[in-house]
Amino acid sequence: MEEEEEVEEPKAKVKEVKMSTVVLTLFPTAVTEEKLQESKEKAITRIFGPAKTLLKVKNPQRAGDFESILKSKIDEHCQEGHLYFSQGEWEKAITCYTKALNLDPNKAELYEKKAEAFLQLCDFQSAAMHLRKVYRVSPKEEIRERLAFVVFIQGQSLYEQKVYLDALHSFTHACELQPQNTLYRIRSIACLAAMNRFNDCLQMVNEEVELEKNNADLFILRARLFEYFGKASCCFCNIQEALALDPGHVEAQLLLKKMTKEAERSKDLAVSLAIKGNLKGALLKINRAISYNPLDEKYFLFRGTLLRRLKDFSAAIDDYLKAVELCRADEASEVRREAEKQVLLSYNDFAVHCYHKGCYEEAVQLLNKAVKGEKNEFGLYVNRGDCFLKMGQLNFAMADYQQALELRPLDPKLRWRIAWLSNETGMQDFRKKQYLQAETHFSSAVENDPWEVKYYLNRAKTRVFLQEFLGAKEDMISALLLNPSKEEVRTLMGNLFPGESPESLLSSKVGDLTKTILDRKLNAFLEGRPLKSAGSELRTNVYVQIEDQQKAEEPAAKEEEKVSEEKKLQKRLAECQQHSHQADEELKEARQHKPTLESKTVWIDPCPRLPPKECPKEPFSWRKN
């Protein structure tokens, strides 16, 4: 029994030893628990030194693997950061987010939270930097918009600090991130304006207007820039565009009031200068007034009058037509009626100017336009007739003169024109031996100017060829009564009626009858005597006739000639005084050195005469004077 118990004890002891199998690399090794615990303690001592802190950990396996530990730590920092963020402790939140990002740099939402915290601290540059990192990780449009806004806020902060160049860079970057955002572009324009880069500013405003044509503020901004550059007309046009979009725009109304006030002031200065005779200065002022308010028809009417007086007729006509166009809505406007009348007057004046320059065809074209607008104006037909006369178109000239005569039957100057033209036409017919037609034309000349002797003489010659001797005798008697001392009258009378004296013709019954008829004609035509001109200055509100302008220009030419003669006389007088002074000096010098009058020279007769030879035997002798 004892032996059996001794055998069972070792077996029991064997059962009490626990075996542990540890797999090391590829080969399993049986290690006891004591040895395993001892090896762990040695490893901990080797890693952490003699510290006994970690020895208290009963089961290290429960801490988990590395990924779980890292994730739990990141979550811990994130939760702590969110807590600080919600409490407004931005710096602590940034610290927590930074720790979390150090453990996991790919968490985009932490960059976004951190950027928001930097934004709350007004650290715009750091906020923008973190938003760029977010955009690289997840390029979403919302992140891009947020980044553009942060850059814009940074630019606005720099703008308020008057760091305009850096602000411009920020605004430009914001525009690049969001090109469709108008606010960012407007702030760039404001920044350029603050830097006095107005050319670039105007260029950007033009681009904005092209993109957004319904924004009245943009037009006002561009109007301000044009005002700065001195382009008043462009400024006015932009104001009108703004008011068309928004009639109640306050700034547009104030700017328009300022422009119209400046225009009226310039117009008053122009009127003052024009009254003083400074037409060119007045033209400059009215040009300025029109640039400030190009919709006032009165300004164009006034400038047209100035240009007409300065003989710039094309520009004057354009201004009058512009005034008519501006008054198109109001047909009963007084300015419209005056402008229409001034257009016709300018056509007439331009035609007269062309007439004096020898451009008769151009003058006729201008007068055609004037006649088309005013068919009852006497002077237009007279002037066009004069142009036709210069061009040799006598029939057209006579037609215009006859038309003018219907409008003013008793005008003496016109009747003289018709008489002269009728006489010329009659002379042409007379040379062609068309005596009947010639007699008709000469009769017309006599009717329109019964004072002219040569018309009677020409008709008398024509009537002789027509064998109307009684009529020819009447014409000769009329010529004798008008100018009995004219040599041509007596010569022609001797050729036509040889053997008859002027006295016999005048004392005959035909003479008495002719005298009575002639007296009636002359009495009826007495008002046709030439009248003296009331003045040499041309009026601007009437149709100028070519003859009137010539008479108006003659006194000026005579005045210039008179001034020239006075200058010549003064020059001649100065020369005479100089010569007289020189002669006085010479005479004075001669008196001081008075020479003797005794002559010391020998005088010899230059032509000695021989005594006459006596020849008594000659039968004649020369007479001596």
TrEMBL record:
Keywords: TPR repeat
Keyword hit for Cell inner membrane: no
Start-end of Basic and acidic residues biased regions: 550-574, 581-597, 611-625
Location of the region described as Disordered in the Swiss-Prot/TrEMBL record: 550-625
TPR repeats: 74-107, 378-411
InterPro entries with a match to the protein in the record: TPR-like_helical_dom_sf, TPR_rpt
Source species, domain of life: Eukaryota
PANTHER family: TETRATRICOPEPTIDE REPEAT PROTEIN 16
Name of the protein: Tetratricopeptide repeat protein 16-like
Classification lineage: Eukaryota, Metazoa, Chordata, Craniata, Vertebrata
